[in-house]
Every structure is written in C-alpha cells, then in structure tokens.
Structure prediction request, 337 residues.
Amino acid sequence: MKKNEKYFLGCAAVIVFLVAWFGGFLTQWGLPPPQFGAAPTPTYIPTQEDYENYAKGIGRWNVFETVSDSLDPASVLTSATNYKLYWYSRQGIEWIYHETGNNKYVSLTPAASGYLWVVIVIPSGQAYYVDYQKIVSTNQYIDQYQYVDTDGDGVKEFAFRYDMRNHAIPNSGYPSITFLGFCVAYDSSFTGLNNLSNSTGIGTATNSSFYDYYLSFSASKTGVAIWKVEVKITSTDETKVKLKKLNVPGIGYLDVAMFEKLYTSTDYRYVYTISKNFDGALLLKYGANTQNRFDMTLNLEYTLTASDDILITLTVYYLEAQTEAGKTTSDTFYAQE
Prediction:
C-alpha cells in the first residue's frame, strides 16, 4: 500500500470514529457523545463593600415565600390562585413595586431604609382571610404591618414590613430571605348563634338573668371575622331592661360601660364595635379537635311591670372573606313578666 493511501485510510477511520462518537453510536461502549452548551454563569462573590451594604439592608436579594392555612399547617396554599404575594419597598409615602411570587430577585437601595414590604392579596372568589396576627408573631424580622392601598385601586391590603438588615450573607451567591404567610379559610355556611326560647316568669322585682348564647361553625378549620355585637331592646322605656355584660369569644366579658347606646323611635341598642374592617376585626377560629362552641353569655337586668312582653335581639356582625361585605347572625326572644 502506498504512503498516500495509508494516510487517507487513517483520516477516514478518524472521521468514522468522530461521526459515531458524536452520533451516540459508541455510548454502549462507555463513550457517550460530548455535551455542548452555554458557558456556566459566574457565581456572584460579595465584596467587602457588599457585606457592609447588606448589613444595612442594601443590595440584591433572593426572596422566597410560602403561605399555609393557619388551622391546617400541612396545607400549603397555591400562589396566584388562593392568594397573590407582591414584594415592595417604600420611598417616603411612595410604594415601589419590585416582583410577584416566589423565588424572585429584588434590589434595595438606601432609599428603602433597610426594609422590604410584603403584600398579600386574596383574589376574587377565594374564601380566605389573611391571618395578619399570626404572620407578625411568626416572622421574627417583621416589625410592623399596615392595612393600606398599595397599588391605588381603592382596595386595602395587608402589607408587612420585613427588616432586611443584619441577615446572614453567604460567601458566594446572593443572600436570601423567606416570608411565612398564613391564611384562614372562611366558613361561608357559618352556623352562628343558637336559638333560645322566650324568657317567661321574670316577675316584677328587679332581678338579673343570664342567657346561654354561643356561636358555632359548620366546619372545622374555618373562621369568621367578627366586627360588631349588638343587643337591641324593643322598647322605649330604658328602666325595664338593662344590659349588664356580654361575653364575646376571644375578648371576654364586656361590661355595659364599654357599649355605645343608640336610640330609635321604637328601641334602644347597646353596641360594641371591634373594628369596621379586616384590620382589628376579631378573627374567630374553629380548629380541628376542639369544641364547636364559643360562649356568648348574655346578662340582663329586669325591672318589669305587669303584662310586660319585650322583644330582645342579640346580633353578631361579621365580615365576609375577601369582599369585606357585612353579614349577621342573630336570635330574638321575648322577656315576659
């Protein structure tokens, strides 16, 4: 064989080998085809200046969130379905939007004063309350919250201020924080107050009577946001029936002095307002494996005259989840001499 022929045969053998290798035909003999792709992204290495800035809450952060059901912690809610979470900062009174959702990156400047704000919104049609009190107590870096309209749509949301200062900074990569959110499922079929029979044989001497009212739920692991309670006396003579005290679940016994008294042409009412919106309303929760009874014992004082038959109504006002629309549950009985 001539020298040139040996050369060409050698080149042909190399070409056949390369074609077979790149084509994956040699994988079974331990020679998988080579992989090509984009060059790996260089890992971010903080400088000494970066460390100093991060200590002040300045820099780029990787932010995470997880939101669970307060009464069923193993139940993780679905982002963008059950709730929406937004990352903001503030410059003076201006809200600065950064990102939405989980595993995002936000950059904070000195104008943010070392704080990131986390805003939770319950979308239309989702029956959940934001459990803002548990959020504040669970996240050690949240030092305050606001119930405020952050995006100018006329609807208030819960916004939580997250202190970004003095967190652990890794040797490589961006530092991260995780926000823990909590919500409570709304009992849309809330059972409400129990019904009492008429109160008879009270007599004409001044005396005190107690009524065993209580609230109950239609399902466990749910809640309602109570914003007001009212005792209405259908009479114009205040001497006949007086409120002494009322037990409100989650608050305790309220003395008559804590109620506002209102008058109409046919009745007078004792009213206690907890809060007119989600912020401050009493979020009454019915957890699993607990008694479905929340006592609301009513104490009245009577000074009736012969043949008195007075209508008395206890009403509990609560807020529907997401919409903040008002709903009520009530019971009425007659106080008879």
